[in-house]
Amino acid sequence: MDEEDSNGGIANDDLEDVAVTNTGGLTFDKRIDRLHQSERIDNIYGFTRYKGFEEKIGWLYNIQPSEVFDEERRRFLSSLDLYFIGETGERFKISVQYSPYFYVGAKLGRENDVYAYLSKRYNNKCLACDLIVKEDLDLPNHLGGLKRTYIRLKFYDIDDLMKIRRELQPIVKQNSEREKEREQHPEASLIKTTTNDLHFGGANNLIEKQIDSIVDLREFDVPYHIRVCIDLKIMVGLWYGVRGQLINDTQSQFILKPELIELPEPIVLAFDIECTKMPLKFPTAQTDQVICY
Q1: Which of 31, 95, 105, 291 has a Cα at 20 to 30 A from 41?
Q2: Average pLDDT by stretches of 10, the chain with 293 residues
């Protein structure tokens, strides 16, 4: 879907060191250890990280969500590992950094208020906050090209996205229930709104009205690897020219090579695990056992 930037992103200048994250309860040191262990395992299977500036031809046959640690900003950044087979059969990989995001829907006419609140409230967690015009399939006559303004929150990593999502979901639910009540009992809601305006004023009332205008979350449940592949048009089973590092921002880290059509012969290990389970239930690691023959 086409997007139009209605406002430039607000970058976060107050970068803080990462001490503890919600990645499975792992501390900073354990996240670093996990990255090193993943790198060692890939090296064992021949997937050395390509760090060169020159273009290298490779056939993409696997992807894996990952993260990298930015030494300059002292932060973890979400990334996608791409695994390639080269023209001569060698194996290598590169990491593509891409910021996860989701959209926040506001009441019509209150988009700027919600944008101001979110950009200030999550300044240390969001990489950027933008106003984006997108097609809304829920609008009547949406086939006519009707569009709506959403607030896009971009994050450094999935951890921050999950934290903010969990914080906003109850707000959206509460506001949706309040909106249904207002539609069913318009007189009562009018009296309640007038009473609140009389009793509360100033900055607190403004913040409350901004929060009350948050009515929807969109694309918050798109898996990270799918998000990156959709946005960057990454497709497994095709040839690409890739670079481990970029000389400048005008270069692309990978370029599709449609003229290359001959397929390599990858070695694939396929396996299936059979296990016990309760009737009409999915297997769980806590109670079910792997069946050995």
Answers
A1: 291
A2: 43 34 69 93 94 94 93 90 94 94 93 94 91 83 78 95 95 88 64 48 60 92 95 95 81 90 86 90 90 79
The residues near 273 (Cβ < 8 Å, ≥ 6 apart) are 290
For position 164, what pLDDT does the model report? 95
List phi, psi (to 5°) of 119.
-65, -30
CA 98 from chain centre, in angstroms, equals 8
Give the predicted TM-score (pTM) of the model.
Answer: 0.76
Contact 164, 152 (CB under 8 A): no
How does strand 239-242 pair with strand 254-256?
antiparallel
Q: Is 30 exposed, middle or buried (0-12, 13-18, 19+ CB in 10 A)?
A: middle
- Which CATH number applies to 1-264? 3.30.342.10
Do residues 153 and 168 make contact, with C-beta atoms less than 8 angstroms apart?
Answer: no
Domain ranges of the chain: 1-264
CB 65 within 8 A of CB 80: yes
In whole angstroms, what is the distance from residue 129 CA to residue 150 CA? 10
- SS3 category, 94: strand
Quickly tell me which residue has 């501390």 as its tokens.
27
Residue 130: which of 121, 148, 118 has the closest Cα?
A: 118
Unique residue bearing structure tokens 């300059």? 72
Q: Which of 98, 107, 115 is nearest to 152 (CA)?
A: 115
